Amino acid sequence: MPEIPDVPSLWRFPAHPASVKRARDAVAEHLPHRLRPQLHAEMSLLTSELVTNAVRHGAAADDVVELVLWPADGHYWLAVSDPSPARPVLRTQPPPLDAESGRGLLLVDALAAAWAVVPRPHRGKSVVAGLTLADGG
């Protein structure tokens, strides 16, 4: 009999800056305690950056931002979805030192084992990023 995979965790938050902390806390609380502390810190940073981008650039005030978290293939994956079809752009150069924004995708790119922007079938997009598990599973 095949092993039943873990069911992905799903959250929906209002497209509001306060949702960034709520999303970060929800993801951190759901990660298994056995995982190394570094994975918690890295996933927290990924969550903050992706949800912040979705709230600022991908959703109107009355929209929601959706998060899905799941383990697969030796990684923990996070998908953050918003209703905008506009794709985020990875800068080729870091922003000026005094800039207050513009580093989010650079951090995602540096932390994630892989990441991509995936169009949603009916509306919007998902930004999916994965962190490698220390023990491969």
UniProtKB/TrEMBL annotation:
Keyword field: ATP-binding, Kinase, Nucleotide-binding, Serine/threonine-protein kinase, Transferase
Pfam families according to UniProt: HATPase_c_2
MF (Gene Ontology): ATP binding
Segments forming domain Histidine kinase/HSP90-like ATPase: 13-117
Protein name as annotated: ATP-binding protein
Species, as recorded: Actinacidiphila epipremni
Taxonomic lineage: Bacteria, Bacillati, Actinomycetota, Actinomycetes, Kitasatosporales
PANTHER family: ANTI-SIGMA-F FACTOR RSBW (PTHR35526:SF3), ANTI-SIGMA-F FACTOR RSBW-RELATED (PTHR35526)
Record-linked InterPro entries: Anti-sigma-factor_SerPK, HATPase_C_sf, HATPase_dom
